[in-house]
Every structure is written in structure tokens, then in C-alpha cells.
Design brief:
Structural class: mainly alpha
Strand content: under 5%
Largest sheet: none
Number of domains: 1
Oligomer: single chain
Number of helices: 4
Length: about 110
Amino acid sequence: MDYSDKDRKYLKARQKVEKLKAFYTHLTVYIVVNTAISTLKIIRNLRRGESFEEAFFDFSTSGIWLFWGIGLAIHAFAVFGLPRILGDNWEEEKIKQFMEEEKKNNFN
């Protein structure tokens, strides 16, 4: 199937939008879930007699934000940073490269 230049640009733009949508969904889930977990842990720790500062700065509470945040940062880099480093059309170039290699292998 041969795509026109307009179709390729549309597909590429659509793919970028899908990646952005996935990142923003990840970010939203990160904030909502971590806020709920942190709130529950802080309330639990306050009921156990800890001060608010002790409950808030407990590593089990902040550790979730930290470790999941590292994963979120990697996701953000993949969506926003990696294309700047590799260039906008690196995926297209790799696809062409693999197609050429496959064509060569089929003729041998």
C-alpha cells in the first residue's frame, strides 16, 4: 500500500498525538493515585500518633512519588526529549532501512 505524502504526514501527526495522550494519561494517573495513597498513609500515620511532619515526610509516602516519578520522567523523555536528540524522522528512516534490508534478503 502506497501512501501519499499528505497521508504520511497525517499518520505521523496522529502517532505523535497518541504518544502525547498516553503521556498525559500516565501523568494524570500518577497524580491521582499517588495523592490518594499519600492521603491514606498520612491519615493512618496520624492515627498512630505521629505528628503531621512525621507522617508527611515518611519515606513510604514520599518513596512512591519518587520511584514512580522516575518512571514518569523516563516516559516524558521518550515523548519529548528523544525525538529532539534523534531527529523528527528517525522512525521513518529506520523503517526504510529495515524495508531495504528485507528486500535484499528476499532477493538472495
